[in-house]
Give the backbone structure.
Amino acid sequence: MQLRYAFRVYPDAGQRVALARAFGCARVVFNDAIRAREDARRVGLPFPTVAVLSRTLITEAKQTAERSWLSEVSAVVLQQSLRDAETAYRTFFASIKGTRKGPKVGVPRFESRKDARQSVRVTANARWRVTGSGRLCLPKIGAVKVKWSRTLPATPSSVTIVKDAADRYFASFVIDTDPAADRTRMPATDRTVGIDLGLTHFAVLSGGTKIDSPRFLRRAEKKLKKAQRELSRKQQGSKNRDKARLKVARAHAKVADARREFHHQLSTKLISENQGIAVEDLSVKGLARTRLAKSVHDAGWSSFVGMLTYKAKRYGRTMVTIGRFEPTSQTCSTCGTVDGPKPLNVREWTCTACGALHDRDHNAAINVKQAAGLAASACRAPVRPGVIPAQREETGSHGFPTDARAA
């Protein structure tokens, strides 16, 4: 399994200039590759291969006056940019044919120098290394200071340098983990749990535990509104507007980091304590189109379930997702009677068949666990299939937005 370990890096002034040059050159090569393929499609010619694009857009382009500055960055960075364009087209065609799972992917588009997020990837053949003093030495950039929050469990296959909207730099290492070693980190247990996700409480467990919703966005809303008002009053193109934009981006990054940390801590705790975990397949996109949209986005259910999924796969746990149309809130967990739909303001109800008094969310969590088949045995529960991409690893990582080019 591949995991992504992210660490904050602090380049000096000269290294920031070198990184900006690398970001720009990678972006130009990526855009040139898209333009070359679009020109070929427009005239009815076959798409040029990666080898042809590498020769024309990198090797030969360096000999011209218009693209001579491509020689100022590592050739590996430019080659990886071409591979990113190839991957983007391959993903697009797979999405059109229906061979790719998930939502439809649009046609690759040009990147802009004004994009909030910039990244370049450096593979092992570029001979990057970690020095004895703990700095990350990158080709034609230098030894960059890294804030190591922990040690890497294995030798990384690549490193991606990312600059986010809040003007922060990160080094993201892709690690191939050892499944046997991962399973020894968390011994097997006979406990199982069903989870009912919500807004009043972020999660209610089948054991009765209720986990309050932190509501990070709601708590920071006043500060965010003030920063956004200040940004809207700045003149377009001015330095003061750039400073105000950075202030807004940092405020949003603080909220996103706090939410991600909460998800990591809770998901790791649930995975370590339970052999089987059951959750409901919520229609997050549908709920995000209602009047509860802001609260739904603030909760971040999809991100949390994604963490549970890849951690369960990594540590040998059983993860079961039941259908969203299962009547968990309408079924009595004691006798199994379906008592009909109930409005959201009904938080407690009494079963008309057996007379049991139920807390709505706790009853739903028990029904989620029973519907997943975890009540009898976690070992025999079906595991939801699916390919697990490289993920940001556990609590302690300084996260950043996901980018398909950096995967």
